[in-house]
Amino acid sequence: MKIKALSRSSSDYVRERAQDIHKVQKNLDPTVHPFEKAREYVRALNSVKTERMFAKPFLGSLSGHIDGVYSMVKHPHRLNSMISGSGDGEIRIWDISERESSWTVKAHKGIVHGLCPSPKDSKFLSCSADRTVKIWDQNEGTTPIHTYMGKYAFTGLSHHYTDPLFATSGNAVEIWDQNRSEPIQEFNWGADTTHTVKFNYTETNIFASCGTDRTIALYDLRTSQPISKVVMSMRTNAIAWNPMEAFIFTAANEDHNCYTFDMRRMESAVNVLKDHVSAVLDVDYSPTGEEIITGSYDRTLRLYNARQGHSKDVYHTRRMQRIFCVQFTMDSKYVLSGSDDGNIRLWRAHAAERMGIKSVRERAHLEYSAKLKERYSHMPEIRRIDKHRNLPQSIKKADRLKKQILGNRKKKEDNRIKHSAPGSIERQPERKKAIVGVAK
């Protein structure tokens, strides 16, 4: 007599240890799961809801400055260290993990306009409106190692990434050698005053400056000549180079936008970053080159994906005033902002992200949730929850007014095109509207 019996191995469903998770049998055939998309949608909805519930970006405040913080730079080699300069000439080195000042000096008699670290050692440089540039070393005490005297007030400072050279901005852009007391080169291309200068991280001999005549100029140390210049409709306040893409930089403008340019084709912007309701005062890239942080006169910080035009998050507090400087930390996990209320604030770069060691299952769950949100980001309910932010009433009113003004401009342009001869008026692209002209 033949008997058919079911036989199975206990290793297919029994845990090896009591700490292991239970084994679950899965059939991956899509015909067995007709409600797969519905279940995924619910998971994506729950994921985006919990992300907004647990979004707590503000971590703490670094207080100690008496005047406003107008310049700030991260340490190139230490994750937990940054340097800040205030309006009363004081410079502080901060221990971010302890959230306290580790070194303080009354460095200048005027406002500290620029700070930059020396890439090769622990020294850093500072410049001020008192017409001096000073080199400091935390290990050498509170006396400057060297002082350079200029003919006029300095408004910006940037160090060469490999050579002992640094650039200053003021009445002209000047190149200094650390071993000489006088500038070795001077660049001047039309602007009465230049207020920002920045060296490229990758193409180290190229640097950019922006002036009071609304220009952004590029220079090359090897030829001792300017490369190109673009004239904007309004003044540019700050420049940041992409650390991963050598030819890309972003300019923070007075017209509430940031413009990303490719230095090889300056006739049109690569991207326009919108959403601020007042002048953008500073901009910085994350070390990965994938994210951008901006600080504005409207008292908010905004985080952008480098390839998208609208902000993915906005940070603000009740006591924070106008933001004059912003920085990413070297691990891309945190953001620092300095404002004229005298405080430096520490934020998470991703508002709902939790610090600490994550298990393999937790990491897999977070990656799965992120992919689900990306897949269903076009759904109205998920998009509404993901984009919702609580903003101050003043910013809401300003945003509403700005949208109304831009809408009226667009309507006026549409009417002009409609009532003109075909082809006589061309619609100007958004990426070219702010550009007045390019010179080479």
UniProtKB/TrEMBL annotation:
GO CC annotations on file: small-subunit processome
The secretion signal range is: none
* Keyword list, A-Z: Nucleus, Repeat, Ribonucleoprotein, WD repeat
Residue ranges annotated for the Sof1-like protein domain, each copy included: 349-435
WD repeat boundaries on the chain: 62-104, 105-137, 273-314, 316-357
Q: What is the similarity comment for this entry?
A: Belongs to the WD repeat DCAF13/WDSOF1 family.
Where would you find this protein in the cell? Answer: Nucleus, Nucleolus
The segments labelled Disordered in the record are 403-440
Annotated organism of origin: Umbelopsis ramanniana AG
This chain belongs to the protein called DDB1- and CUL4-associated factor 13
Pfam families (UniProt xref): Sof1, WD40
Question: Would the keyword Ribonucleoprotein be found if you checked this record's keyword annotation?
Answer: yes
Regions crossing the membrane: none
The domain of life is Eukaryota
Q: What is its main location?
A: nucleus
Query: What GO biological process terms are annotated to this protein in UniProt?
Result: maturation of SSU-rRNA from tricistronic rRNA transcript (SSU-rRNA, 5.8S rRNA, LSU-rRNA)
